[in-house]
Design goal:
Chain lengths: 417, 485
């Protein structure tokens, strides 16, 4: 999906130049000298948001299980979680046993479950529905993501140099970060992030890096992607410098993370949070939830992976004294059909629960569970619009006006203490 | 001196390029090229970048003398071009039990084929009918699917869709082999309509359900003599009458006892299909977000030619849009294009064994596209991580020198032949060579500063060549413009 880029004026570009050389942007100086807090001027202080994407369409009914509903067992003769195995939350729903690692957090009131989240006229295409969650504009195709609009409209203002305002963990940038401006960096590995130069002539390394910066700070050629590539290159070079510092200095805690890419990614986020680079939004995705066939074992493994990773992350944040500064928001592009299919799996559906975690979260169940009998085309009817969850995060956590980011969103729901 | 064929050829013909570079006036710098694709040579180079992995200097010479249309025919009608690829591949046969071996086999083909458009189209189909080994879990079936794309690369699109619908890797990837009478699995039917043929918005949920019924019983089974273990898991298509729903279906307004083939025939009656494919191919080869009139014109060519792909590709390559300034350097190289193009330009004939892993880190895990939608391409290719990988892969190939990875051979004698007499001539020569001088003046100045720093008068000493010329090449490969195709 191509983005449309605006061409930044030469004047604006040249303000980034000082005598043809390279200047460290403000946040680098801040990080290096540890003077005023990096976020002092930004509403919301040191607060950060971590978005967790469960790709493929997580089966909400087998995640938060309506164990007291006969229709659930009727619709899913092969896939239903037996009542005796469910970890009860209320008289009606309970956790899938694979989510057992989240129980302590739930007991401490640090886990909110928003039931029946969706949007009008649900789309059952992975790509379109994911795009809807990313753009937060269900009724038309737009080329900016909700987090991209947040970062540009309200978070960082004109401070374009702040390359680490947001960070995506992974290889490709999710549409949620799309903006017409500075691309948000994506990283997969903290340690290997350095530009390599000719090992035989190490004495020239600094010169070569300096020339590269000069090229990327210079003029842009007249091609459609030139400005975009220059922005991306500058971000990459800044990030390389910053991450080398973090890799050398971040303190370890006693928390053991599972050896999964998801959990390792969360650990990296914890280290970056500790390093206090001023990053407001982190994004991490884990996939495989498109369980069309033989779902039970696969889904169990996927949920356990998520629960164990989140448990380690929240404990780690606690040890680092950052538990109250971070909110984790977990979503998937849709839930799955109420009735199981002929291959012991489930097809694409609609509404499903979202999770929010953090010390400042109002724990417990939110919203109403959709009826299992009043379905639309075999799918759950949503009871909470996902944009009202986003709006709550924007207003009550990131301290910004949600309407600047989500023009047509319904009002926020109460999710924070 | 023994030198890989491509490197020797590339450097031997370099003098021609220099002459060409000199002919261009200095005013071509500023913000890059003012009037791209003005000469036949540039048009041929542009065509080979898009329809292949870049022209060799001989190809550039030959087709600059002949006509642009000859170059199009050479690429499109590739059956006429003799190729010794199969012979060369026999020296290092593919191991069909290992997915990385299948990847390496394909990359070797892309690097050495004399029919580059065939491999380019296989790559296009791989991202179009995007099937991932993460679920298929069979190197052999993935290999066979790519073979199918190669065999039908520029054949008939309708026939290709039918063959793909029966391809074992696809049957497994989109759960067709779980699609049973009375308990349909919609996965294949949905993606067939949404991603493979018509595009979203041209059908209803009901059409998907009905199409899924028509494909029930399209299963696969082990071929005679095959066994279910790596390298021998050769499945074949199998129509299971007992699992097929023979009842009437209503699909896109037509009612009948349709099977999968009938569904495909109805899909090819829809105007959406030709537009969808024409748009996607044009965007892949020329530029993104094409004008509606262009798409409509190409779609008409496609339909008139009964969905044959060769006439459509000829129409794209010969269109004024394809040769317009808007198309010039308008696309971002995919990781495969970046790596294969780089190796061809540097004369590296043997891909590094870890090239599949390098490509994965650059965002193109071959035979494992991220989703059934394939790679989005464009801006999606570029993130901090993937750009860094590009810089560092270029560094390996340019300054590796020793070790198991083949890298650029560069001797003072190669450069002396070019008769370069100044730092400026040196920088301009390599800018012409790698980015057709399509860089802003500030880039050229920075590169000049680099080659001059710490050096006295201009002289192609062994140290200068080994240190500064290699350094210069690496820096040019890291420019924004070298990421463009």
């Amino acid at each position: 999906m191509p983005l449309r880029f605006t061409r930044r004026s030469l004047v604006e570009t040249s303000t980034l130049l000082v005598a043809g050389g390279f200047t460290a942007p403000a946040f680098l100086v801040r990080a290096a000298e540890a003077t005023a807090p990096a976020n002092a001027a930004i509403p919301g202080g040191k607060r950060a948001l971590v978005v967790v994407q469960l790709g493929g369409g997580n089966d909400g009914l087998n995640t938060i299980v309506p164990y007291a509903d006969r229709s659930y067992y009727q619709a899913r003769p092969r896939l239903a979680i037996p009542e005796r195995e469910v970890l009860p939350i209320s008289e009606y729903v309970g956790f899938n046993p694979a989510l057992e690692p989240l129980l302590p957090l739930y007991a401490e009131g640090q886990l909110a479950i928003v039931q029946g989240v969706g949007y009008p006229n649900p789309n059952r295409s992975h790509f379109r529905s994911m795009e809807i969650w990313h753009t937060a504009v269900p009724d038309e195709v737009v080329r900016t993501g909700w987090l991209g609009r947040y970062l540009h409209n309200t978070c960082c203002g004109e401070d374009r140099s702040a390359a680490l305002q947001a960070l995506n963990l992974g290889d490709s940038l999710p549409a949620a970060f799309w903006t017409e401006h500075v691309p948000v960096p994506s990283i997969a590995n903290l340690n290997a992030f350095a530009i390599e130069t000719d090992k035989k002539y190490q004495n020239e390394r600094e010169l070569r890096l300096d020339i590269l910066r000069e090229i990327y700070e210079g003029m842009a050629s007249r091609r459609v992607y030139s400005e975009f590539l220059k922005d991306a290159g500058r971000n990459m070079m800044l990030l390389a410098q910053e991450l080398q510092k973090v890799a050398r200095s971040a303190p370890a805690t006693s928390v053991k993370y599972p050896n999964t890419p998801f959990a390792q990614g969360l650990q990296m986020i914890a280290r970056l949070l500790s390093a206090d680079l001023g990053t407001r939004v982190f994004y991490i995705a884990t996939g495989g939830f498109d369980t069309h066939a033989n779902q039970l074992a696969t889904h169990n493994r996927l949920l356990r992976n998520v629960a164990e990773g989140l448990q380690a992350f929240m404990n780690d944040l606690g040890e680092r004294g950052r538990g109250d500064d971070v909110v984790v928001m977990v979503f998937s592009e849709f839930g799955r059909r109420v009735r199981e299919n002929g291959s012991a799996g489930t097809d694409h559906g609609a509404a499903a629960p979202m999770f929010l975690l953090g010390g400042k979260i109002r724990g417990g169940l939110h919203g109403t569970h959709p009826s299992l009998t009043e379905l639309i085309d075999g799918d759950l009817r949503f009871t909470v619009d996902f944009r009202s969850v986003y709006a709550a995060v924007l207003q009550d956590w990131l301290g910004t006006d949600p309407w600047k980011v989500l023009p047509k969103a319904p009002p926020p729901i109460e999710l924070f203490k | 001196m023994e030198r890989p064929a491509l490197g020797g050829l590339a450097l031997a013909a370099a003098a021609v390029l220099v002459a060409c570079a000199r002919a261009r006036t200095r005013s071509s710098f500023g913000q890059g090229r003012q009037n791209p694709l003005a000469s036949q040579r540039e048009r041929v180079a542009h065509l080979f970048r898009r329809a292949g992995f870049g022209a060799t200097p001989e190809q550039l010479d030959e087709f600059s003398r002949r006509s642009y249309d000859d170059a199009v025919e050479y690429l499109v009608d590739y059956e006429q071009v003799p190729d010794d690829l199969e012979q060369r591949l026999k020296l290092n046969p593919v191991d069909l039990s290992r997915i990385d071996s299948v990847r390496q086999d394909w990359l070797f083909r892309m690097l050495h084929t004399k029919r580059p458009l065939q491999e380019k189209m296989a790559l296009f189909w791989h991202s179009h009918f995007a099937t991932a080994n993460s679920k298929v879990n069979s190197a052999l079936l993935m290999y066979r699917q790519i073979e199918l794309f190669r065999r039908m690369a520029l054949g008939n699109f309708r026939e290709l869709v039918l063959e793909v619908s029966k391809d074992p890797a696809m049957l497994r990837w989109l759960d067709s082999n779980q699609n049973r009478k009375g308990a349909p699995n919609e996965n294949y039917a949905r993606e067939l309509l949404e991603l493979f043929t018509m595009g979203i918005g041209n059908y209803t949920e009901r059409d998907i359900k009905e199409a899924a019924r028509a494909f029930t019983g399209w299963f696969m089974r082990l071929a005679p003599g095959a066994q279910n273990r790596p390298g021998q898991d050769n499945y074949e298509f199998f129509f299971d009458r007992n699992q097929h729903d023979f009842g009437p279906k209503t699909f896109l307004g037509e009612t009948g006892p349709w099977d999968g083939g009938d569904i495909i025939n109805i899909i090819f009656k829809q105007p959406a299909t030709s537009r969808f494919i024409a748009r996607k191919l044009f965007s892949f080869f020329a530029y993104e977000n094409p004008e509606e009139a262009t798409v409509a014109r190409l779609a008409e060519v496609f339909v008139k030619n009964n969905y044959e792909l060769k006439p459509l590709l000829r129409a794209i390559f010969k269109s004024p849009e394809f040769l317009s300034p808007r198309a010039y350097h308008a696309l971002i190289k995919s990781p495969v294009e970046f790596c294969i193009g780089l190796m061809r330009e540097l004369g590296v004939a043997v891909p590094p064994t870890d090239l599949p892993a390098v490509l994965r880190r650059m965002g193109q895990d071959l035979l494992n596209p991220p989703t059934v939608k394939g790679w989005d391409g464009g801006a999606e290719w570029i993130s901090s991580v993937t750009l860094l990988e590009r810089f560092n892969f270029a560094n390996r190939l340019v300054t590796g020198r020793t070790g198991r990875v083949e890298s650029l051979k560069l001797e003072p004698a190669d450069l002396e032949r070019l008769k370069l007499t100044s730092f400026e001539a040196l920088v301009d020569y390599f800018l012409e060579r790698f980015v057709e001088r399509d860089v802003p003046e500030t880039t050229r100045k920075a590169l000049l500063r680099y080659v001059k720093t710490g050096v006295g008068a201009f002289a192609l000493t062994p140290t200068f060549v080994d240190q500064k010329v290699r350094g210069l090449i690496h820096l040019i490969l890291c420019t924004p413009e070298y990421q463009l195709n």
